[in-house]
Amino acid sequence: MSEDATVNTPAETRAAWTPEGEVKPPVPKITDDAVIGAISTVYDPEIPVDIYQLGLIYAIEIADDGVVKVEMTLTTPACPSAQELPAQVEEAVRAVDGVSDVHVEVVWDPPWDQSRMSEDARLALNMY
After folding, report:
1. Does the pTM of the predicted model rise above 0.70?
2. Domain hosting residue 86, numbered range
3. pLDDT, tens digit (0-9, with 9 covering 90-100), for 101-117
4. Deepest in the core among 45, 65, 86, 115, taking most CB within 10 A?
5. Residue 101 maps to a domain
6. Is-contact 93 99, C-beta < 8 A?
7. How many domains does the chain have?
8. pLDDT single digits (tens) 59-112
C-alpha cells in the first residue's frame, strides 16, 4: 500500500470522540418481547410450563435507562420455589441486551388462579 493510500473505516466501527472523551454507542432498545422471551425460560420445577404461560407475571416496566421492573406472583404463598423463582427471573432478564438493572417484586394481589394461564399452558397441563 502506498503512503498516500488511506483506509476508510465505516463510521459504525469507530469510536466517536468529543473533548470529554469517547462517546459510547446508544444502549439497545429493550423490547417487551425480549424480556418476555427471557422470562419464558424460567420454569416452576413442579410444573412443566414456563412461568409466563402460567400467568405468574403481572407487569413488566422498562425504563429508558435500561432498568426493568417485573411484578410477579407465585401459585401459592407456600410455594416451595418462593426464593428461587424471583431470582431466576432476575437472572434471565438481566441477560437481555441493554438491561442495566432488574427489580423483581413478588405481589399477592390479585391472587393467582388458573384463569391467568394461557391456552397453551392449560393444554400442556390438561386443565380445560
Report:
1. yes
2. 28-124
3. 999 999 999 999 999 99
4. 86
5. yes
6. yes
7. 1
8. 999 999 999 999 999 988 888 888 899 999 999 999 999 999 999 999 999 999
